[in-house]
Design goal:
single chain; 65 residues; mainly alpha; 3 helices
């Protein structure tokens, strides 16, 4: 592997790997964004419920405020 990197150069190999990462990430970008957004929303809701004392009873959290 060392001779391969010496022959072709680390920069060329890194550029190819980065290009592959970008090409594979593009189709999955929206699904990853949706998953992360829903996870953060769930965490925020649980955190707010824990602070207000309504954990497990989120539908009544509006009545306490």
């Amino acid at each position: 592997m060392k001779s391969f990197l010496e022959e072709y150069g680390l920069v060329v190999v890194a550029a190819i790997i980065i290009g592959l990462f970008i090409s594979f990430a593009s189709p999955f970008g929206n699904s990853i964004k949706t998953y992360i957004t829903s996870t953060v929303d769930t965490f925020a809701t649980s955190s707010e419920s824990a602070v207000t004392g309504t954990l497990g009873n989120e539908e009544n959290s509006e009545n306490i405020n």
